[in-house]
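User: I'll paste a sequence; please echo it back and then give the predicted structure.

Assistant: Echoing your sequence first, then the prediction.
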Amino acid sequence: MTQLEYARRGETTEQMRMVSEEEGIDLEALRRAVAEGRVVVPHNQKHKGARTVGIGEGLRVKVNVNLGTSPKHINLDEEIEKLRVAVDAGADTVMDLSIGGDLDEIRLALLEASPVPLGTVPIYQTVVELGVERMKAEDLFRTIERHGEQGVDFITVHCGITRKAMPLARRRVEGIVSRGGGFLYRWMCITGRENPLYEGFDELLAIAREHDMTLSLGDALRPGCIEDATDEAQLVELRTLGELVLRAREAGVQVMVEGPGHIPMDQIERNIRLQKEWCRRAPFYVLGPIVTDVAPGYDHITGAIGGALAAYYGADFLCYVTPAEHLRLPTVEDVREGVVASVIAAHAADLAKGLAKAKERDLKMAQRRRALDWEGMFHLALDPQKARRYRQESDAPVDEECTMCGEYCVLKLMRKPEAA
């Protein structure tokens, strides 16, 4: 049985209890949220040793990190180091998007090394091994089954790009920028057939239910530039995903929905509200959103700006963006920078929404700052390593005050007794 099925029967699982304790929320309220599909708990029992994470309404906003090889850069040790750094920096989940090397070996190694839930995009492996032209629907479903058997906790499946949506994508400035979406678009062009993930959705649900593998309904038609944001192609796909959410829940399968993409700030609220309405409050997983197209090298910042707004308006899950986005495969340091930027965005949204643990952390930081308690500040910092390094690299790291004000530190001044 899946977490959703247990919750519908009125039963709580060990995983639900762990999420309840971690989040500091009532267990019965959490069970109801899982039963209604407003929260998912990605947990394939074959993924041993992975911590339990809840994603959805009323919970802390979570952060995902994409890892993986490319045909031009294959280094498994480096990917495992990226995973370690990502988790250390605050990532709640990771996804293996590898398209170079022995993909089974890479995935199994990352599963073994990952202390957090791990996701994949199975169509990548199918296309890498067979090519778009030779791929058959049954090949894709066999790959999905293999990922479930190996312990993958959640998978991105681009079920919403259908033949009726194809002409809409051709009108765009950038067309399709989703790799998985592009593969399926090309396959439909070659075969003249419907998207196998849409046409064979019941088969997909049976596989996902068997392994309690959460479905992340991918946004194949997400906008890849500001000009394409919230266009007809994106919205047609979103409506289709809303229909599939209901079918997944009816089958007892946990499901969340992926979202844009490149979206200007003034359109973010509308995007979140439409997803929550059309997809029946399913957890919303957004890439960024990236709020401007013209900041290559700084897209961890454009993504964090969009992510903070999206999470404040109701997005539940942020996919990090690194400084290398649009430019190259990220390095280990790029991964750290990207994670921290998204973690800051998530925390800022949690704080603005009034989550008790977020408010408590900021209050404690204020108290430590007033006391000039540097170790206390480092402990509470979202990036303790960088905070400590900046302090140690200053001209006076052993002094009570910092080098910004020195002896004129206002916090020290305020400690002096007032004149009689």
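The longest strand covers residues 62-67. The beta strands are 39-40, 55-56, 62-67, 93-96, 118-120, 154-157, 214-217, 255-259, 284-287, 317-319.
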